[in-house]
Please model this.
Amino acid sequence: MPLVPLKMSAAQLDRALAAMARVVGRDQVFAAEDDRRSYRDAYGPSHRSDHQPAAAVAPQSTEELQALLRIANEHKLPLWPISRGKNLGYGGTAPVLSGSVVLDLSRMKRILEVDVKSNYCLLEPGVSFFDLYQHLTDNKLPLWMSVPANSWGSVVGNALERGIGYTPYGEHTDRICGLEVALPSGELLRTGMGAMSGNKAWRSYKYGFGPAWDQMFVQSNFGVVTKMGLWLMPEPESTLTMQFELDEPQDLVWALDLLGELRMRRVIDSHVTIGTPLRTASLFTQRSEWYSGPGAVPDAVVREMAKKYGVGWWTFAIRLFGYEEVNQANARIIKAAFGKHSTREFKESTWRRGEPLPRAAVQVPTTFFLQAVNWHGGRGGHMGFSPMLPHGGEGAYAQYLRTKQRFDEFGIDYYGGFTLAERYATNVNIVLYDRDQRDMTDRAYRMIDQLVKDTAQAGYSEYRAHLSFMDGVAETYDFNHHAMRRLNQTVKDALDPNGILAPGKSGIWPRRFRASKETT
Amino acid sequence: MPLVPLKMSAAQLDRALAAMARVVGRDQVFAAEDDRRSYRDAYGPSHRSDHQPAAAVAPQSTEELQALLRIANEHKLPLWPISRGKNLGYGGTAPVLSGSVVLDLSRMKRILEVDVKSNYCLLEPGVSFFDLYQHLTDNKLPLWMSVPANSWGSVVGNALERGIGYTPYGEHTDRICGLEVALPSGELLRTGMGAMSGNKAWRSYKYGFGPAWDQMFVQSNFGVVTKMGLWLMPEPESTLTMQFELDEPQDLVWALDLLGELRMRRVIDSHVTIGTPLRTASLFTQRSEWYSGPGAVPDAVVREMAKKYGVGWWTFAIRLFGYEEVNQANARIIKAAFGKHSTREFKESTWRRGEPLPRAAVQVPTTFFLQAVNWHGGRGGHMGFSPMLPHGGEGAYAQYLRTKQRFDEFGIDYYGGFTLAERYATNVNIVLYDRDQRDMTDRAYRMIDQLVKDTAQAGYSEYRAHLSFMDGVAETYDFNHHAMRRLNQTVKDALDPNGILAPGKSGIWPRRFRASKETT
Model:
């Protein structure tokens, strides 16, 4: 039986899809059972029946997209836009609201501009990190991208989810300089200096005049981004990578205090990610090679992993980018600071312009880290749980202990760590599972639900959430009776009165769906 | 005859003011003739009769402010919020719409928090740069502020106007981390991680979950900021200041190419401002000491100023902040780069932690630069005209020539320069005048009107505008029939249906005023 969107009959859906087929062509409307399955969450547990798309439709151009939005309004059909749908661990291609039609933008994949003078590119949503990297290398352009650990996805999509990377340009959403957006009505808008036709500074100044809208279209359902301006980093003279190990769990306290200080002072200018041995082991092996006893993998086994890979309980790398003598000066400061706490030495490696790139260079897209989903064997998947913390080792260590205890309690192998930005730390937790093991995936979902609550009680919340947890995370943002949610709803209702664009994204529901959800 | 707001009778105004007096006390409602005059644009030409406030009212607390907003809604009384009203050159204390009541927030002046661990402060709008500096020095806190050249105003207000300073924290609006806002209804909202009660990361992560609102309350009329979280810079080990002169106007071309490159590569990590000899002369002398002939001060006289002060046609300083050896490494790179174009040497000076601060240290508030308004004698004033350019010396030089030609044409002394951010350059133009000289001020206004048009034709627009030019600047943002303005109006109508908050700010007019303005 075909799925239908909430409050829509099968016949109504068919009429809407037929109208859309007249815009994009019948072969770009995907409504068969196989199609619907392919647009479900690639990492979704197989027994779950939530987040099921009714169909998918793939426009090729902004004009086609605008026409689809107008049709969606006429038919009151909810659409769920995806760039390339590789938001793995957070729901992938699937919608929050079952019965939404996925608006697949992956055919809109033009690299519209790469400007070496402005160190800038203008992209459509379908451009992947690999596409852009290919373009830069084919044309020998001296520009570096910042890529996430799993670079399979869309450059635009990742920045719109506040994803991160490991160069000085690693705060991807901060690199946005101007958007073109199709509003839910289908109307086209440009932000920043792009709001002036022919403005020459649109690659250079983010804000335009008056209120600035870019971040309103990030992690939201106020419009569909059709073009994104993004700053790229001029190729540096040199990089210096400094790898370090911490032997004991509680070493996290002094190390994060120190790394936070070095980040605040801009001695380190790129994200530092610190993780446990299981992170390394899961890239090269499967769980069955290490442990087949009950419950989560014990610490003693994790120490075996550490020994095998020559890493500490915690391992991290600091990366410096720029002129070699400046990197060296900063490196001396880092080493002197660490030397007060540890006799270990950094493992250093240098790259200079003109040399071949090192293996695992962080500006090169890779899907290597996806190997981890094979940890349990079978059809692997994962989910992310990512609260934001201020800098500070004590708070992070307490969060680690608290969270690890839940992993142990739920019998799930602990895979967590911290990514240090200039001003904050993300406690990144990856929950690995075999999608076809019902007990395991049920435990995973229950644990994440518990972690959201634990973490709120400890005074933190998440910056990003899987579809199934968007409402729960939005619920934690409770100041003044969820004033932020109510404000977002007010704007949502004004921009999308028919409630057709991504209902439920980040917990923002259009008016017509709100009666059946919470009443705040 | 007392002024009344558009569409409001004197009796209605009196009733509204009486209701407000019951909230704040009669002595905090300023409705006498003297009061109204004191809230006009301090730099406004004396013959002009626009931007006249009907009265002013000064709440002491957020609760009083919320009550005033509710009264404004009941009585449909337009309010114009000011932090301390020192937005000199852009309109100061005055409203766009004559007859608005100024909402003076300067009594809300608590420094609510200064956190040395998070390098952060939480401020009310009435806190001045001097207040905060006093607090930091009195308490010997190792935190540096970034202050604008004229630091007489409010820290919060400046960031809400996208003002800048000269430390690495000089992009003030980017240092905002969380706001508390009273919406036009009077309802209270917190943004970012502050949207969760008791969240411990609200000093550290800007964005929260879902769409991020902070920049929606900047240069806008969607809400009144009652608290602002702001990042402060940890006191650096050292600073290195490098002063340089360029002899000829066209030296701007290679110098801005080079400075832009050095900024993009983060060799220089703070704003560099480059200006002409008249900028220096106006700080120490008056026009009458140099020239009393017809028209604008001729270039030959400007060269005399250069000679007297030992500056070039252009003068600028590069400032490096951080560890001394890193500053030295960056300084060597800068000197090598400049050495390819000029045999001149930088004049360098170093400060190290523990030493007394140098004169004109850029983290110390000052009003010294206001001396310039005395240039013409009499009651001096100025207005700012500030288009945004991409990096690049040719474009900047063309903008300089084009703009200077207009100054010469209108008989106004050229006072212009460029401030280089990491990715863009602001062409800062200051129009100095004697407020009581009608011919001079009329020419100034006509010239700015012309400059807005010239500049739009050249492909640039402004990031900030004087009250009298907000509509004109908003008009240049014309992509898709002013889609951005229409979007802002949609949100404005949703958040402020009675149209009581800062009508006309950044060209955003509430519905009830739109019929009498342009129809787009």
Summary: The CA atoms of residues 277 and 307 of chain A lie 9 Å apart.
